[in-house]
Amino acid sequence: MQGAPPDQMGASYPHMFLILLLLRGANAALKSPAGPKWQTLSGGPPLVIARGGFSGVFPDSSQFAYQFALTASLPDVVLLCDLQFSSDHIGFCKTGLTLDNSTTVSERFPKMERTYKLLGEDVHGWFSLDFTAEQLVQNITLIQNIFSRPSTFDDSLGMYTLDDVVELHPPQIWLNVQYNSFFLEHKLSSEDYILELPKDSLSYISSPEVEFLKSLAGKLKKAKTKLIFRFLNENVEEPSTKKTYGELLKDLKSIKAFAAGILVPKTYIWPLKKDQYLAPSTSLVKDAHALGLEVYASGFANDIVLSYNYSYDPSEEYLQFMDNPDFSVDGVLTDFPSTASGAVACLAHSKGNPLPPPGKDTRPLIITHNGASGVFPGSTDLAYQQAIKDAADIIDCTVQMSKDGTAFCKHSADISSSTTASVAFASKASTVHEIQNKSGIFSFDLSWSEIATLKPSIISPFAQAGMLRNPAAKNAGKLMTLPEFLDLAKASNITGILIEIEHASYLAKRGIGVVEAVSSALTKAGYDKETKQQVFIQSDDSSVLAAFKKFARFRRVLNIEAKISGASKPSVDDIKKYADTVRVNRNSVAQINGYFLTHFTDTVSSLQDANITVFVGVLKNEFMNLGFDYFADPTVEIATYTLAVLADGLVTDNPATAASYFRSPCSDMKLNLSYTILPAQPGALVNLASPGALAPAGAPAPLLQPADVVDPPLPPVKAVIAADAPAPGAADNTSSAFSSSAGNGLLWAGIAALLSLTFLH
């Protein structure tokens, strides 16, 4: 019985899915080298168990979800089917007891809503047992029931039976019998159904009901099927023993009498504190292993708010459960089996691997964006120290200026959101249209002594979605002057530094020479003669870059904020007059429509063909920042920009995530691995959607033109009288307007001002 209604599946769908399978299917075609020893009960790698298939992308328990899980995961992936019954005792795969939240049943049968008792509580909705198998297959289609996942495939895939899953010939099938007692009350026996299946067609059977598993164990003695006791929340009562699952957890020996293993919520192993940070691990895995019980953990998904310990990198969560020094679970139950597969096959046991040097034949540069700003407040000592620890190649400082000429690192001249300035200096708020169209508190309106009193604030770009960055370090660290940044960099083993200069023309009119300040600081730090570390000067102003031509060792980076689809030949010629590198945004490289990756632009190739280096950014770990084709996995995006786009450098808030990938064997496509982390394939997912499911793509972005590259010459730094004396120690920090080429004229400017006042008087 096929789960897709014939009138819902277009003839091209199987065609497109075949193409997608071929693109992903190379993962299973190669032999796997002998791997390291694991701390699982068997000593082998943990199993990846796909809950309802690849339910993180496709509707749960759908044909596409199961097929894609087989091709995008490890060769021994386990497909999990949550058992439901039709009124004529046909087994379907569907998570949850009611159907209305994940199918179109309420639209097709609006009068079939019912109320049933489950463990003494009333449950309202539409239930599979009120429909025949034919009614379910011919009339009902599946929909995505999690808001963060694509709804594009809704109403195009029918319900899938267990027989349909068996016909896919997966390596292993896991049948979860969540509601045995409920269906038994309605004369639909899970036990009878299972015993009628072909022998050993199921590798695992799990259930939260003790008596059901005990009865089944007595009848499957010669079968190879493993029985797994599933734990629910600790305060829930198990129906047959009348004990809570928390109480049963204290008597694992009794479970060993009828089960080969246990399936537990992941918090049973690594509990979360109220502040969403990890508490110390429990002894559950070790205790169970000591009794010969396997331990499987559930609740893994890339698109949920994880513990802050993981910095929104889902791979780090998997590694916490399988690659820590003390234990490894025997398997993970996940909605995103590709990420779990990558953790097992690629990232585990690789933290001690050396990081390959950057280069065209190895990997792109890892370039920070305000240091490790995904972990600590950006541009602080802690963010830079973390970035160095996380193996960033290039650490960056976007230079801002105080009104008394101190250069320091901060991502924006408006420091209202990245510091506590909005509280301390609310009266200083103003609107500077040359910089931004909204009100802010600007560094050039404050003295360094005032700025130094502020605490930094971590910026969470997706805070409105509840995704905060490391709240425990919300105001941690201290602001760094440019000389302090340079001293830190010099004392480290990084490859180089990137200094970004913004708003030079505006600052010059304010009497602040940021170009002169940066030049002086770099010279004083010896970077004009530095040979071990590369200096990159970045700006969106070609005249700023021209001012640094005198430093032959420095590389110049033109920052292009506008969205483009490529670069015209004249614009490329102009770029080469000022810069040897271009930094572009992700949306100039990967075209996204409705969160789907549709194609790569010509931006990178058109620049690289002219021997211009290309940096791409900004990469962020949060799944809200990722298109669906990346599977809510930042490592897939890194692999895409590395292996498909061939970027020369990746600008990221989370250098640790990039370094973890590049340390793994899967970053080297020359290795013949049984599984690797593949780049996203443009159009692969979107072409599976029903025609018209997505809005038409917008017009392509324009090509870069010379007018986008060449800027007017910088104005001379206006001579002004300092309203505030430089802060103690600030005199050596910079060479600002007060100590720049205009410095010798300050005395004359002061005299001229006094004469002017006298004349007016």
Automatic annotation (TrEMBL):
EC code(s) of this entry: 3.1.4.46
Name of the protein in its database record? glycerophosphodiester phosphodiesterase
Domain named GP-PDE is located at: 46-344, 364-662
Q: Which Pfam families match?
A: GDPD
Taxonomic placement: Eukaryota, Viridiplantae, Streptophyta, Embryophyta, Tracheophyta
- Name the chemical reaction catalysed here: a sn-glycero-3-phosphodiester + H2O = an alcohol + sn-glycerol 3-phosphate + H(+)
A single GO molecular function term of this UniProt record: glycerophosphodiester phosphodiesterase activity
SUPFAM superfamilies in alphabetical order: PLC-like phosphodiesterases
* GO biological process: one example: glycerol metabolic process
Q: Which UniProt keywords apply?
A: Glycerol metabolism, Glycoprotein, Hydrolase, Signal
**Which residues belong to the signal peptide in this entry?**
1-28
Q: What class of enzyme is it?
A: hydrolase
Q: Does the keyword Cell inner membrane apply?
A: no
Checking InterPro entries in the record gives: GP_PDE_dom, PLC-like_Pdiesterase_TIM-brl
